[in-house]
Amino acid sequence: MEEDPDVETAIVERLLALAQADGWERVNPYTAHYLAAHARVAGRLPELGTDLGYIVVAEPDSLAATLGTGFDRDLPEATRLYLRCAHAMRGLSMDERAAVLSLTAAQQGRTLDLAAPGTAPWWPRWARYRSTPYHRVLEGHTGGVRAVAAAEVDGRPVAVTGGVDRAVRVWDLSVGSTLRILEGHTGAVQTVATGDVDGRTVAVSGGDDGTVRVWDVTTGRLLRTLTGHTGWVASADIGPVAGRTVVVSAGSDRTVRVWDLREDNAVRVLEGHTGGVRTVALGIVGGRTVLVSGGADRTLRMWDPADGTPLRVLTGHTGWVLSARLATVQGRALVVSTGDDWEVRFWDAADGTPLRVLEGHTGWGRCVAVAGTAHTASLGHAVLSAGADRTVRMWDTESGDCLQVMGGHTAGVRSVAVSAVDGWPVALTAADDATIRVWDLRGAGEADSREVHGQWVLAVSACDVEDRPVAVSAGTDRTVRVWDLTDGSPLGVLRGHSGWVGSAAHSVVNGRHVVVTGGAHAEVRLWDLAAGTCLRVLEGHSSSVLAVETGVAHGRPYAATAGNDSTVRLWDLTEGRMVKVMTGHTGGARTVTTAVAGNGPVAVSGGTDGTVRVWDVDSGELVHLLAGHDGWVREVAVVDVAGRPVVVSASDDGTVRTWDLDDGAALRVLRGHTGAVLAAAAGAVGGRPVAATAGNDGTVRIWDLTEGRHLRIPLNGCYGLALHHSALLVATHLGVCVLDLLAPP
Questions:
Q1: Dihedral sign, CA of 186, 192, 193, 194?
Q2: pLDDT tens across 675-701, in order?
């Protein structure tokens, strides 16, 4: 039955009247689930989207589905902020949803008229994040998503994706929902491509089962299964060659295959690569279709797909070539490639001349895509690249400038494509975090005006300096930044490290507030916090220093450091000299903290050997060996519980464990994280001992160490935590934020 806008308007008015009478916090379930759907038909959705009281009580999946992908030009900013985080709100209370929305706004440098409800368990104080373009998160795959491609079906934009769950999914990009699931692959799907065959939109997929499959995107019907590869299929493309539509594919058997869709077998097999072929693409060079391939032999090869003739070999990459595309910029045909040497390279496709090398990624480059199509003409001829560093970067093909860095994925990005939604140019990305993201590209090139870390933040700490609470953060941009803990205003930047900085701790030496930092290249530095100057470089470690903590022993300040050289080292900060080297870990020492046990000062360390070790600071001797974790120990902390010092340890095995520091007895195993636990801190909130932990499951959890209960906070990409009274400092891949813990779990 056709929906009547007048009837829907009447329903909206009635539901709003009931909500006004009862209050949004007591709204009935029907309103929470269906008001948005009625408002959409009535043309009232933009108006409703300005009501923050409604947004935080609405059922997240229902409201997000009604709002679509957020590219409706009439939607207010609050709804787009909501769509950034709606996927994280499932299972949360109204108060927690309000906190998530407020944090999302703070991360983007925005302010919403939201106050912390009286029963909110936590609330954001401030955030200093690199802002990211608007993007919508699409969920459905049950594992990492390896490939994404764009297409149109009946004039509507769609995305086709494939993943490790063996499924190929077709998504309606206007509403952000799955249209259909294409099943048949018996292994992970590693590649998808889209094209046109006799006026019909088709998708091509390939994967670990060694097959290439052709699907009708409109109906979901399997049209053809192409077999012949003797290993997994890494890449595929589809396009016209000499008047015929062909599929090209490549894989671990070192071959490139060309398939005529009117035939059952490969028309030809192209051989020449001496390693697995990871990428293949079709494009136009000099008026004819050309095929480019690249792989583990570090070469790019160009072929005439009509007859299989090799055209040229392009060399220059110093690692595997993982992705390549052909593009035409101002009439000039280009090859664009990337790989595990972290570089994006441009070549003249006509003669193979190297043109440009773009640097910026801090991990393997896994994929490239080319804008400048009819749908994205407003972007010019830009290139997008993405990879293991979790970022998507847009490059100007003429100048080589990086126009935009898009961060948000919490695992490596495997694939990128360009499309348009309602006339807006968008990027589509697929990643190992099991999500697809749709990015608004209209703001490309806008500079981030706020003073923030330029890359991942790995560590945070806090201290009081002359009664002023101060936060310190450090990261892969080689800087240590100092902030006012109360409001997040920047106080200073410490520069001098030659690589990433992974840990920071505060101390007082001769009445002077100092910070000790550790990081890459075995560096440990001692800084004057007020002056921002490096006082001393502490030399001794032979590889990366992963953790630093400070303490006081017999009235003298000292630092404990843990490194990849398997050692824990103690330093006299007054004299700046190393006083002890503790050995025993059989792998890298990942973490260290200091405490006082019954017999005096101790250092507690953990490492890749899965053990927690307690050391006597005075003698350097091992006091306790705490075994129980069956994965790397990433972090240790110590807190007083009922008058006894307790060690909290976090591990890759997904557990948080507590131990009695005095006698080494195991106390409790805290379970809740669904993946590796990467960071931990401990302290007291509201007079109760708590631990805060962060995992690669996209959550921070606050544990009541007396009773074992915990609170879940959705927060992605966390690498470091610190507690300062009731303030929780969080270091993430996009920036640093501070949350007020208003009540223990």
A1: positive
A2: 999 999 999 998 999 999 999 999 999
In degrees to the nearest 10, what's the CA dihedral of 231, 236, 239, 243? -10
- In angstroms, the CA 536 to CA 513 distance is 14
Q: What is the pLDDT of residues 363-372, one digit of tens each?
A: 999 999 988 6
Averaged pLDDT, 426-451: 82
Query: What's the rounded Cα separation, in Å, for the pair 606 and 624?
Result: 12
3-state secondary structure 98-142: HHHHHHHHHHCCCCCCCCCCCCCCEEEEEEEECCCCCEEEEECCC
CA distances from 629 to 77, 505, 585, 634, 641 (A): 46, 26, 14, 11, 21
Query: How many angstroms separate the CA atoms of 745 and 709, rounded?
Result: 6
* The pLDDT of residue 165: 97
Of residues 135, 76, 75, 85, the one with CA closest to residue 105: 85
- Contacts of residue 740, Cβ cutoff 8 Å, sequence gap at least 6: 116, 122, 123, 124, 125, 726, 727, 728
Rounded CA gap, 156 and 102, in Å?
A: 33
Helix axes 94-107, 77-85, angle to 10 degrees: 110
Q: What does the block give as tokens for 644?
A: 């006894």
- Written as six digits, the tokens of 583 are 């050995």
Residue 495 φ then ψ, to 5°: -120, 140
Helices (H), strands (E): how many in the chain?
7, 56
Asked whether the beta carbons of 513 and 558 are under 8 A apart, the reply is no
Q: Is the dihedral of CA 537, 542, 545, 548 positive or negative?
A: negative
Residue 710 in 3-state DSSP?
strand
pLDDT band at 1 (very low <50, low <70, confident <90, very high): very low
Dihedral angle computed from the Cα positions of residues 731, 734, 736 and 741, in that order, rounded to the nearest 10 degrees:
-80
Question: CB of 233 within 8 A of CB of 191?
Answer: yes
CA–CA dist 349, 356 (Å, integer): 13
Of residues 610 and 19, more confidence is placed in 610
| Residue 15 predicted with pLDDT over 70 | yes
The pLDDT score that the predictor gives to residue 424 is 86
The two three-digit tokens of residue 598, written as one number: 């019954």
The confidence score (pLDDT) of residue 33 equals: 94
Sign of CA dihedral 710, 715, 719, 723: negative
Task: Give tens-digit pLDDT for 159-198.
Answer: 999 999 999 999 999 889 999 999 999 999 999 999 999 8
Q: Is 284 left (phi over 0), alpha (psi -120 to 50) or beta?
A: beta
Task: Give the CA distances from residue 722 to residues 262, 503, 558, 683, in Å, rounded to whole numbers and listed in that order.
Answer: 62, 11, 20, 9
